[in-house]
Every structure is written in C-alpha cells, then in structure tokens.
Automatic annotation (TrEMBL):
Listed GO MF terms: thioredoxin-disulfide reductase (NADPH) activity
InterPro entries the record matches: FAD/NAD-bd_sf (IPR036188), FAD/NAD-binding_dom (IPR023753), Ferredoxin-NADP_redctase_2 (IPR050097)
Protein source organism: Actinoplanes philippinensis
Phylogenetic lineage: Bacteria, Bacillati, Actinomycetota, Actinomycetes, Micromonosporales
Domain FAD/NAD(P)-binding per the UniProt entry, residue ranges: 4-275
Keywords of this entry: Flavoprotein, Oxidoreductase
Name of the protein: Thioredoxin reductase
SUPFAM superfamilies according to UniProt: FAD/NAD(P)-binding domain (SSF51905)
Amino acid sequence: MNGYDVAVVGGGAAGLSAALVLTRARRRVVVIDAGSPRNAPAAHLQGFLSRDGMPPADLLAAGRAEVKGYGGHLIAGTVRAVDPDGPAGFRVRTGDGGVLAARRVVVATGLRDEIPGIPGLAGRWGRDVLHCPYCHGYEVRDRPLGVLGGSPETVAHALLIRQWSDDVTFFSHGYESTPDERQRLAARGIRVVDGLVTRIITAGDRMAGIELDRASVVAPHALFVRPRLVPADGLLTALGAVVADQRTGRTSVPGVWAAGNAVDPRAQVITAAGQGSAAAIDLNADLVDADVRDALPFSAAQERRVAAILASRE
C-alpha cells in the first residue's frame, strides 16, 4: 500500500491547483482522476486570466505536467471510498481495488450537469446549446439567442442573456410566467414563445432549429439552458463531511478538505482553481502542526498516560 501526505480526488482545476501548491511545499501527493471533466464538450474556456480562449483539455494537460514536474503522482481512475484509518489518516480505495494511504485528503470531484431530455439537446451541449453567459455569451454576442424556460429561474436567465444580445427569445417550455415576469421580459424586448420544446433540429454540425409542440420551428444562433447542477459529493456524504470553513474548504471531518464544484456548484474554472489553492495552503499548515507534534519528545505526563493505556490492555 502506497503512502502519501495527501490524496487529491479529482484532477480538474481545483484538484490540480491544490496538488501544485502541495507538491511545491514538498509534500508527497497523489491525484486520482477519472478523466471526464465537466467542461469537456466546450471548445474553449473563458474568463481565466492569461488563459482566456484556451481549450479546457490543454489547461488540464498543462496542470498535470506541472504537478508531475514537482514530483506529484497521477493515477487515472476513480475512488470508491475514503475510509478513516485512525492516527495514520485515511485509506483511499480506488475503483480497480487498489488502496492508498494518505495523511490528508482533498475532495475535488466536481459535478455533472443534468439537462432536459429533449431529443437533440445533449448532442449540442457546450457547442450551441450553452449554459453560462459569462463563459460563452461574448462569443455569441449580437446574434439571435434563445433561452429555454421551465422555471422562474429561467426568466432571470433570459434577462441576463439580454446583456449580450438585443435579439432574445424566451421559450416558455410549459412555464406559466407571471404578469410581472411578462412585463419585465417585454421591457427588455425579449419575445416569449409559448409551448413545449420537443426537439432540437441539427443540420451538419450546427443547431438548425427548435421544434415546438405547436409545429412551429425557429432557429436562434444559440440556445441557453439552465441545467440542474448535481455535485459529485458522494465521498463527502459517505464520510458525513460538510464544509465547515468556506474560506479554506476545511470540512467537518478532520483531515478532509473540499474544493471546486463538488461543494460550490456555481464556481467557474478560475474560482475552483483559487479554492484548490486556498485548501492546499490550509491543509499544509495542518500538516506542519502535525509534524511538529510528532517531533516533540514525550513529556513525563504523556509517558504515564501511554503506560496506563498499555497496562489496561494486559
């Protein structure tokens, strides 16, 4: 069984940022990652200072190279359980049956986007079916844009999308907007199309139209959809861990930190990277304290306590 100071579960921006800080602090670090990042469908990431427009895969490849360059270990795979192992820390059980020992753990497992099951929608996800205007709005600015309805939150989404184009259509998709919501949409010149969206029509490698149950077809340049954000927090839940310190990512379980979308679904890539860095700095400080305690000689009182414990077991 391999032993590490820190096991980082998840190799996205948060996990790799944490690993980079910790390897530079000369900690023994392993990163276990399944290789299926949330932003894989997107051609580019935006809003990341100095990396604006970079393909997401290139950012992660650069991060992995940096972590390896400082001596970090990378394992392709999944983690099925993290088990407390007394004073030693944790046993990290991988999907292939392996077991890693780690003094501390960072959970940076991200999330998945749960999107409506409209035929044709998933195939265009991250391309011309989009979710985040701050990530994609500038690239489709001043073009005809659509927003898929279905809830009160989607009305607010449509009003936000209007910042990037004055040609916005709100497809109600069964949502009955209130008179106040209709007034707000009208005030910003946002058209409302009632009826259910039944299919996304494609032609070649682009979205060619949106089919409604009322048989009408329209063709915006891009369609914005609010997905349901489902954090991949199973490991944290199994441990009974919740974030106790939002600033550092320290959880309610001693020795476990969390960062990125697993605990902050709305964090963008640059935010997740910052959270990973903050968690790593706090975690390293905790390890420093532990290293000092381990290096201190036993006091007479400690020796008496140990002797008493041993005697009680005889």
